[in-house]
Amino acid sequence: MVVIDLGRTQEEKDRLMILAMLCLCTGILAADVFIPLGFVIWGLYFLPILMSIWLTHRYAPFFTAWLVSGALLLGSLVSARTDQPDLLNRAVFILMIAVVSLLIWEIRNNQASLEREITERRTAQEQLEDLTHNLEKRVADRTRELSELNEILKNDIIERGKIDKALRQANHKLNILASVTRHDILNKLMALLTFLDLSKEKAEKNPVILEYVDKELEIAGVIQRQIEFTRFYQDIGVRAPVWEDVAAVIRRATEALKMDGIALDVSVSGLMIYADPLIEKVFYNLMENSIRHGEYVTTISFSYQKTADGVVIVYTDDGVGIPAADKERIFIRGFGKHTGLGMFLSREILSITGLAIQETGEMGKGVRFEIIVPAEDCQILPEPA
């Protein structure tokens, strides 16, 4: 089997095709000059035009037609065949062949483009089917994983629900036990105070015993205040945190205090915080400490400041203030002149939902407590129109 090598690249094929057409045109010219065969020449003329269809240039058939026509015209002049009918027939035939060649060229190119487009679409469809299959597989795997995780989460929620229920029941029982125990202790303490008062009356003539009894009464009074104080905080962390209107909480805390002669400025309108329901006791302790230890307090104020991390609630008074050495010690359990529990428990209440408190005032210019509220635990509602 003989294989004709027309070149490996398109450029090589085009060069060889053009060379073949030139050679064929030369042969046609020679045949037309020496052997006038009429339409046999036109059949040979048709061959290079058909060959030009396979060239990459769109107008190659026209160029070839004019090239071969020029050769035929030259042959006519050489052989003195210049009669008008022959030239007219040649011109019409040339035009027809060129148009037909161009149409064939367009059909071939369109067919090639269509086949290429069909091939590309088939390839794209196969790729899309592969991607769809992979996606469906990944979705199925992911769905299965999510189902397994949901089942685990569901079981975990059930277990947590059981644990929470058990903890609530245990806390409820502990609160009942604490209430009963506190009630019994206070009853016994009242009896002890009664007997101490009687002892004091009997010991009026003995200053030493009288001094001892006074100290015993003072200690018993401190014990009584501490026991009564714990009653307010037995529910720390028992109830779920809620969103509280700071201004409303401050008003409720104020109702339990005697604010005679003290001006109250509350500038926290619209501020909501997520905190333990006992947050009211925090504000109560701040104001109660100002009244009890501020010595000459005339003004108490609440305000807030926006920060990049959330909000800072600021509490100030114009009392004596807190010494620099005691700014952190006031939050230690047992420190203070009263029960020593107020600020300690206030910090514990705030820490339940991630809030913090610190004292930044200056001695002699009043206290300044800052309650730091993270951004996720605060909201500022717009003022009503």
Largest sheet: 5 strands, mixed
- Structural category: alpha+beta
Please state the average pLDDT score.
Answer: 76
Described by the principal axes of the CA atoms, the overall outline is: rod-shaped
Estimate the helix proportion, in percent: 55-70%
- The CATH topology of the domain at 239-380 corresponds to Heat Shock Protein 90
Unreliable stretches, pLDDT < 50, 5 or more residues?
A: none
CATH architecture label name of the domain at 239-380: 2-Layer Sandwich
Strand order of the largest sheet: 2-4-5-7-6
Keywords:
alpha+beta, Heat Shock Protein 90, 385 residues, five-stranded mixed β-sheet, rod-shaped, three-stranded antiparallel β-sheet
Care to give the gist of this entry?
By secondary structure, the chain is of the alpha+beta class. It has helices at 10-34, 39-52, 60-78, 84-202, 207-230, 246-255, 279-293, 342-351, and strands at residues 242-245, 263-267, 271-275, 299-307, 310-317, 356-359, 368-374, 378-380. The strands form two sheets. Strands 2-4-5-7-6 form a five-stranded mixed β-sheet. The protein has a three-stranded antiparallel β-sheet with strand order 1-3-8.
How would you characterize the overall build of this protein?
The chain has 8 helices and 8 strands; from the N terminus they run αααααβαββαββαβββ. The chain is of the alpha+beta class. The chain has a domain at about 240-380: 2-Layer Sandwich (Heat Shock Protein 90). β6 (about 355-360) and β7 (about 370-375) form a beta hairpin. The longest helix has about 120 residues, at about 85-200. The model has no long low-confidence stretch (mean pLDDT about 75).
